[in-house]
Specification:
- The structure is a single chain.
- With 276 residues, the protein is mainly alpha-helical.
- It has one domain (3-271).
- Helix content is 79%, strand content 0%.
- It contains eleven helices and no strands.
- The longest helix is centred in the last third of the chain and has 31 residues, at 181-211.
- The two termini are 30 Å apart.
Length: 276
């Protein structure tokens, strides 16, 4: 990579860090589409790199949420084992022959469609919610079925698409547990610390064995991650502080806007690159 590309990675890392820290989503939904735009299609490489960066994005965010005392440790520990199982399954699915070579366009398109569906759902929630009840939803029972309904999809999506999983963990906690938005974001960040680390290890092992053509390319995800991590950590610290300062409706609106932009970019690019 040249000076322009490295500078672009630093900017992408900063923006991904702010977004990930603010919304408890890691940062992949910003990093992967942005890297595709700057460096060209290479979904498996970007997922392997983004999974590494996600860990460094959420660590400073979790520190901020812990200081604000909004993390529900009982919920986090209940969700982590199932989320880890989902990550392993998701990474395995991402490596089926359909998604290799030119077929990685299908993986990018799937990522984009997933974000678009989530965007529509969050837009509905945003239009249906009111300031009076947005942070006062009664907590619902956290049984095994509800925990699985949150953790397994979160882990599978994290492993399959290289995201932190917060894009599902946040809305699913609100749906199944009735968690306030700030608690859902904080819990999501705490879960991502574990799932992103496991996902990064698995995905990079698979990348080296299947997708790297030589010794140099085997280190490509680590090199990309090192370009993104410094500014991502700075951005995450700032974004996680904003979570507890900005009005809830603004936080939700930022979430919807990011989802909309990323989904359109990914779907459009994947459509043009689909195998003939």
């Amino acid at each position: 990579m040249g000076v322009f590309e490295i500078t672009a990675m630093l900017v992408i890392g900063l923006f991904a860090g702010v977004t990930g820290g603010l919304l408890g989503i890691g940062g992949s939904i910003v990093m992967i589409p942005a890297m595709t735009m700057v460096l060209g299609p290479n979904q498996h490489l970007y997922q392997a790199a983004a999974m590494i960066v996600n860990f460094f994005v959420v660590v400073p965010a979790v520190r901020q949420h812990a200081r604000a005392k909004v993390i529900s440790l009982a919920t986090v520990w209940r969700l982590i084992p199932l989320a880890l199982a989902g990550v392993v399954l998701g990474v395995g699915i991402s490596e089926i022959p359909l998604f290799r070579g030119g077929g990685e366009a299908y993986l990018r398109g799937l990522f984009g469609l997933f974000l678009l569906c989530l965007c529509v759902f969050e837009m509905y929630r945003l239009s249906a919610s009111t300031p009076s009840n947005s942070e006062n939803t009664p907590m619902q029972r956290k049984g095994l079925a509800q925990a699985a309904g949150v953790a397994l999809p979160t882990g599978i999506i994290a492993g399959l698409l290289g995201v932190g999983g917060g894009v599902l963990a946040v809305p699913l906690q609100r749906r199944f547990f009735g968690s306030p938005i700030r608690t859902a974001i904080a819990n999501s960040a705490a879960i991502i610390i574990v799932t992103s680390l496991a996902g990064a290890i698995l995905k990079n092992i698979v990348y080296v064995r299947i997708h790297s053509s030589n010794a140099g390319s085997a280190y490509a995800p680590i090199f990309l991650a090192c370009c993104l991590i410094p500014t991502a950590m700075i951005g995450s610290t700032a974004g996680s502080k904003l979570t507890h300062i900005l009005p809830v409706r603004i936080v939700k609106t930022c979430f919807v806007i990011i989802l909309a932009i990323a989904s359109v970019r990914l779907i459009g690019g994947a459509w043009s690159d689909l195998p003939a």
